[in-house]
């Protein structure tokens, strides 16, 4: 699975504590500690996350939007409202015109991968 790089600022005391835990062998490195801490927080809020996903009708994980899906929506006269927690990918063969004609709105809590031209064509619909 692809990952995204984030930057955080920590005070010297917190950073020193992390380094001490790494030095003592509890974690392989700072990144291992931070990933573990984030996963523990997400797990601790699993119920709230699950209820929010259901309430907002979000897709969880990977959502691939294909040319075939958009062409079917166009043929049916439908416009899509896509909501994703995770990664959304718009296929490389989707044209900007097809995306603009079929995608009414996109909400991605995570990462959106699409061509620069497609992103530009639907920029006003991306929340």
TrEMBL record:
Domain of life per record: Bacteria
Pfam families per record: RHH_8 (PF17723)
Gene3D superfamilies assigned to the protein according to its UniProt record, in alphabetical order: Met repressor-like
GO BP annotation list: regulation of DNA-templated transcription
TM stretches of this protein: none
Record protein name field: CopG family transcriptional regulator
Species of provenance: Acuticoccus sediminis
Classification of source organism: Bacteria, Pseudomonadati, Pseudomonadota, Alphaproteobacteria, Hyphomicrobiales
């Amino acid at each position: 699975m692809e990952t995204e790089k984030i930057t955080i600022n920590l005070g010297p005391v917190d950073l020193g504590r992390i380094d001490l835990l790494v030095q003592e062998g509890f974690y392989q490195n700072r990144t291992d500690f931070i990933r573990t801490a984030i996963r523990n927080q997400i797990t601790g809020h699993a119920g709230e996350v699950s209820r929010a996903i259901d309430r907002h009708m979000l897709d969880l994980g990977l959502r691939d939007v294909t040319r075939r899906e958009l062409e079917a929506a166009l043929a049916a006269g439908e416009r899509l409202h896509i909501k994703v927690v995770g990664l959304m990918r718009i296929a490389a063969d989707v044209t900007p015109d097809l995306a603009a004609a079929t995608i009414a709105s996109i909400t991605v809590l995570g990462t959106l991968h699409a061509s620069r031209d497609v992103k530009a064509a639907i920029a006003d619909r991306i929340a």
